[in-house]
Amino acid sequence: MKVGIMGGAFDPIHVGHLLAAETAREACGLDEVWFMPSHVPPHKQASGVSGEERLALVEAAVKSHPAFRSLDLELRKGGVSYTIETVRLLQERHPDVAFYFIIGADMVAYLPKWKEIGELARRLRFIGVARPGTPLDLDALPPEIAGSVTVADMPQMDISSTAIRRRAAEGRSIRYLVPDAVHDLVSRRGLYGVQP
Ligand SMILES: Nc1ncnc2c1ncn2[C@@H]1O[C@H](COP(=O)(O)OP(=O)(O)OP(=O)(O)O)[C@@H](O)[C@H]1O
Ligand SMILES: O=C(O)c1ccc[n+]([C@@H]2O[C@H](COP(=O)([O-])O)[C@@H](O)[C@H]2O)c1
Q1: Which of 41, 108, 109, 158 suits 83 as a labelling partner, its CA being 20 to 30 A distant?
Q2: Which residues belong to any copy of the Cytidyltransferase-like domain (predicted)?
């Protein structure tokens, strides 16, 4: 079985994440994509919305896709969510699964700084998708890392969780930047300053 891991803060999950996962699934023939919210992201600040809430938003977002699942492994594990540690656990638990890790162009450029990237790049393949703001340029990477990245062709979507949080805090609509089910849950729970 081929499984793509879509890791992120998902604060909140948005349509850019979902299209990245669907693009990767189709391009690489993945059987499933597991969306995995991080506990503490390795290199950025959390917004203050709990892991439990971020997971609930992910669950709402993936429910309608037969091949998408949520995975609470990093939230349960706690601490800083370094991918190498997560992947060791996943491969121990699922020895028959071929894992792929789906990332946007910003993260592709950042791969050389990931913890134990050499071992990680030997353990799985990355699937990189376009994202405005950072060129998706494998030639800029050391060859041993570039060799572990497959590029999947995705329309550029200039959407980020940061911009969604900012819009919500300003009282502007976030409808259609997130799936309807996520919009409903955000409104019901009054997250990110959205009024019920
Ligand atoms: N619009 C997008 N297009 C392509 N990939 C994306 C997009 N948004 C996020 N990603 C990818 O999804 C993964 C998880 O992203 P994350 O949850 O941190 O979202 P984010 O929008 O970058 O969040 P924030 O704005 O809070 O930093 C990363 O690999 C990131 O590159
Ligand atoms: O392991 C690392 O060093 C590492 C560094 C940066 C990001 N990651 C992972 O990449 C995914 C996307 O990261 P982010 O910061 O865009 O949410 C998420 O699952 C992170 O845990 C992992």
Answers
A1: 158
A2: 5-167
